[in-house]
Amino acid sequence: MSDVSALQYANVDEHMAAAGSLHKAMLPMGFVTAFCFHHQLLSRQFLQQHESTLARVRYQEGQVSELFAANGAVLNKQDLTEGGLVFLHSYLPKLTADYEATFGEDCYGIEDSWDNYQLFAKVLVRAHLGAPKARSLLASRQITKPIVQSIKSRWKKLWR
Fold it and tell me: How far apart are CA 68 and CA 75, in angstroms?
């Protein structure tokens, strides 16, 4: 890439050979772009530039890749907030593997739909925010034990 403001892997070129068509090649980054919008990872400049498309994305109408397509099928550094840059720099090298793992062998043959976006958004949330912390039964008992003891002691005082 000759444009130094472009993010590595943040374009359709990375997916064209496997996808076979421009529309199908836009799916992975289209999902990522919609995710970035829903998680406030896009810059104000980007949001202002694509204001007419954002209502459709907000209400999950039309095709998911529409916002990415409206930006020329590429995300540049100036399109993202600082948090968005940090996330995409770490995540984009894993995008293709996660996309293929989520949708299987014919991943580029899936429909450009919000239902499919929701499936992939679960993967993106884990990549962005991390896996939820497992709470063990022992941990929950340790948290609730002081509360229960406090309630018991107040009841005892009340009935004395």
Answer: 8
Q: Give Cβ neighbours of residue 40 (< 8 Å, ≥ 6 apart).
A: 81, 83
Contact 57, 67 (CB under 8 A): yes
CA atoms 87, 92, 93, 99: torsion sign: positive
Q: Is 60 left (phi over 0), alpha (psi -120 to 50) or beta?
A: left
| pTM for the whole structure | 0.79
Task: Check whether 143 has a pLDDT greater than 70.
Answer: no
Give the residue carrying structure tokens 């309630």.
Answer: 151
- 12 token code pair: 């359709």
Q: How far apart are CA 101 and CA 8, in angstroms?
A: 21
Contact at 8 Å (CB) between 26 and 68? Answer: yes
Query: Given pLDDT bands bounded at 50, 70 and 90, which one contains residue 147?
Result: confident
